Amino acid sequence: MLSEHRDVVLAMESPLQMLRAVSEALLTCHVSSRSMRLQCILSLMNTMSDEDLTQALSVIYREVLICQKDANKKTRDGALEILKFFISRLRGEVILHALTTTLSTNPTGNPNSNATSVLKSSTVTALCLLLLHHRSNTMMLEAGVTLLPQVGELLIADCPHQTKAVLSYLRVFVSIQPVQTITNEELLPSVVAAFTQSLGTHKAKFSSRCRAIMRKLTHRIGEDTLRAVVPHSDQPLLDYVCKHARRAERRKDQQRRALLSSREERMLG
């Protein structure tokens, strides 16, 4: 109805007012209708100016963040589309302010409550999307460095949701930051410690994510620089990553030589 009779509906009430009405019951409605409400929200947002969209962000972003962790995949996908829409339309500073405010507040009063952990982990995931979108923006890269200690503190709660989100943030961080930033003598040890020594009981569960971060760091800053700050207990992981990297490089060299050889044979033949 909203798509077919858009002009009539919008003539009766502003998109922002309708969005407020839809978002108020977003978390309390039945799970089967939540994804459809998110689609309605996205449809309304498509008609808004940037000014109205900024107001819409303050109205619904918390609900959208929580929907990112919903058990229903359609709801999660709908929430993700709304976040991507905000990131693509609004200035990065506006969204960054909203997310950092959420990250530093405690909505339930209990830092270990499930609602708090879900909201904070979803906020970190949204920060990852934001930083990836603005990876060429110097101000956003600096904000990513500033937020690193605050994001790392979420590991203290020993919560799987938050641990997974923090590891995603670390992977994005080491992927987009300049090498000179990553190799800072104070920053690099804290990054390495976050995914090697601060995971507690969740280290085995997220071993593949830790391995991916180690692999990315090895690629970005080199084995020697990284080995100097990796704890002794995690040196075998670094050895494993480096061994596979060298094996992959040898395989690429063999493929390149085979390709050159076949080209020469075709030219001579």
TrEMBL record:
InterPro entries assigned to the protein according to its UniProt record, in alphabetical order: ARM-like, ARM-type_fold, RRP12
Protein name: Uncharacterized protein
